[in-house]
Amino acid sequence: MPKSSSLTFNMNHSKRLLCHWNPVLKRVVLALALLRFMAVVASASTPNILFIMADDLNTDLGFMGDATAITPNLDQFAKEATVFNKAYCQAPICGPSRNSLLTGLYPHNSGLYSLDPRYDEVPEYADLVSLPLLFRNNGYSTKNAGKIYHTWADPKAFENNYGWFGGFGPFPEKKIHDPGFGSHQFFDWGPYLEEPETSDYKIAQKAIELIRASKDSDKPFFIAAGFMSPHAPLYAPQHWFDMHPIDSIPPLEDQSEDMKDISPYALKHVSYDAQQRYGNWIHESNLTSSYLQSYRACVSLTDYCVGLVLDALKEEGLEKNTIIVFVSDHGMQLGRKNLWKKRTLWEATAQVPMIIKAPNVRPLKVDVPVGMIDIYPTLCDLAGLAKPEHLEGLTLTGLMEGGKASKQRKPVLTCHGPGNFALRDARWRYIRYAD
Question: Which of 43, 395, 408, 416 has a CA-to-CA distance to 179 between 20 and 30 Å?
Fold first, then answer.
């Protein structure tokens, strides 16, 4: 029986019993019943928000069609939600991608192209209402655990900032794989750490703590959990590697010809300087499968941590009245076109996994191309909040309800640095570089 129906029955039953009680007690009991009824109605009409973000996660996932991926928690979640099969970031690098999502502005319009600054550190945007700030301004308790911004969270938007919990470390005393030409400590991979030592596990535990504490609050919550993996260094406990034997890693398709028809400027733009030298070393040293094994181990670790958070939400009885978003900031090349990192305008880096689950919305797979910039207006609509006028994305609610794309929806735009753009529609990817 739904809560409201059950409560109505209980109120009617109480009225029959009250005919034997004194008038004062009758009024007290009725008042308490009415307050409880109002609380149920309020909670049903004011959904919570659980916003989960991964770092450098591409679409090599079970629910996205990768038969060799081991992502059971995300796969199960995808069965219960709206999966956007063609979702794209607005910038293929952490800082501008996250700034765009949180502000609702395209990078080429905001001018925020690089890792820094954070949008609220720019005088022009000091008063801009970001996604979490909108919810805080509308009576939500806003809490952050982990990496949602490229740097620390905006203190105006979140009541508490619980940081990165160790960030991308800890690091071993000596790198497991060292090419010997002074590469950054991030560029390493292999079995290392146990679960409690990993940032993702610590972030999951803090998010769970915030979820459990929310039950004692009279406010709806906006809880953001930002996981660090599978960002390099690709360290994970040994047993996650054991789940992905080297011989189970799909071989890479030779795409070397794809690099021959782009201009010298474009080639320099995508090569990512020293990081591409590191990528070449991986390829030349026949370590491709080893690196991809580490990436998949880290993905499975993050999937496990996401599952812990989703299970806690269910255990606390909060799932049915919570909007849940899962997304990554961008993808990774991972050897495609012999490029290993991000910062390209190609499909592997621009496409992201994106899942949204909302109360009373049936599970669905959407093949219409959409952008991460559409998340902000979508959450406004799902929560019944007025959208700020500055938003440049379009709501996804019509698509989530099984509707067709509106005529307003155009190909999805991704940019990387001034003058470099990609457009993605249902069939094609078009790239234009600044030259």
Answer: 416
Return the pLDDT at 153.
79
Is residue 81 within 8 Å of residue 357, measured between CB atoms? yes
Q: Which amino acid appears at position 250 of this protein?
A: P
Q: Return all residues near 18 (Cβ < 8 A) that are at least 6 apart.
A: 25, 26, 29, 30
Contact 4, 40 (CB under 8 A): yes
Q: At what angle do helices 288-315 and 199-214 cross, to 10 degrees?
A: 10
Q: How far apart are CA 329 and CA 311, in angstroms?
A: 23
Q: Which of 13, 19, 20, 150 is catalytic?
A: 150
CA distance 239 to 301: 10
The Cα–Cα gap between 177 and 367 comes to 40
pLDDT surpasses 80 at 55 = yes
- Find the helix or strand (DSSP H, E) in which 41 lies: helix 23-45
Is 415 assigned a catalytic role? Answer: no
| Residue whose token pair is 């900032």 | 161
Alpha carbon separation from 319 to 87, 322, 378 (Å, rounded): 24, 5, 19
Residue 316 CB: number of other CB atoms within 10 A? 15
**Average pLDDT rounded to a whole number, residues 116-122:** 85
Active site residue 94: yes
Return the DSSP state at 196: G
What is the percent of the chain with per-residue pLDDT over 70, rounded to a whole number? 89
Amino acid at 307: G
Q: Per-residue DSSP letters for 71-94?
A: -HHHHHHHHTSEEETTEE-SSSSH
Average pLDDT of the segment spanning 347-361: 97
Q: Report pLDDT for 25.
A: 53
- Per annotation, catalytic residue among 89, 94, 305, 380: 94
Beta pairing class for 48-54 and 160-161: unpaired
As a whole-number percent, the residues of the chain with pLDDT over 90 amount to: 69
pTM metric for this prediction? 0.88
**pLDDT tens, 298-347?**
999 999 999 999 999 999 999 999 999 999 999 999 989 888 889 999 99
